[in-house]
Amino acid sequence: MVIFTALPSGISSDEGNRDYEIYQVPSNYVVVDDEQLPFEIKDVVRIRANEKFSKYYDCMDELGEGKFGKVYRCREKATGLELAAKRIKIKRDADREKVEREVAIMTKLRHPRIAQIYDAFATPDNDVVLIMEIVTGGELFDRVVDENYILTELAVVMIVCQLCEAVSYIHSKNIVHLDIKVIPMLSRLCIIG
């Protein structure tokens, strides 16, 4: 794969210097492995209203918190499979409808750069818990602002290419992600904020 990146100057001189660099990416260089998912992707995931999340999953440590709720590490009781449980606060009926639409969309997206949904539950207090593929490695934003983390140009190029693959795939399905920002990017694109 050949990747072009613009130089900060963005100016070509009369000496024929280019205003971009060409990187030849080694074929074995991968920032994110295309590992096999530890579960079979379901054709349909519906929010289960009459079943308790705790009947099927053990909730473990908190992984993070966002605008819409908290994310926990959980383990499926039947299989021991480790997943992420994202609890989304539902304040209005319109919020529930939005989450239901996003779950339906997520069920249709099959791409190695997009976090996959596994299950979903409604809680007694009207919130929704999404069970998803657990994405390790932390948030990209944390890496960018950490002065002790060395983020090479080549690594940035590879990360951006992989995220562009995910966005391109989503667009090919006539879906637009309206909330892309550095913070929810882990090593896969997370569709629900």
Automatic annotation (TrEMBL):
Annotated binding of ATP, by residue: K86
Domain Protein kinase: 57-193
Record InterPro entries: Kinase-like_dom_sf, Prot_kinase_dom, Protein_kinase_ATP_BS
Pfam family, one: Pkinase
Keyword annotations from UniProtKB, A to Z: ATP-binding, Nucleotide-binding
The keyword Lyase appears for this protein: no
One function term, GO molecular function aspect: protein kinase activity
Keyword Transferase attached: no
Protein name: Protein kinase domain-containing protein
Annotated source species: Acanthocheilonema viteae (Filarial nematode worm)
Lineage of source species: Eukaryota, Metazoa, Ecdysozoa, Nematoda, Chromadorea
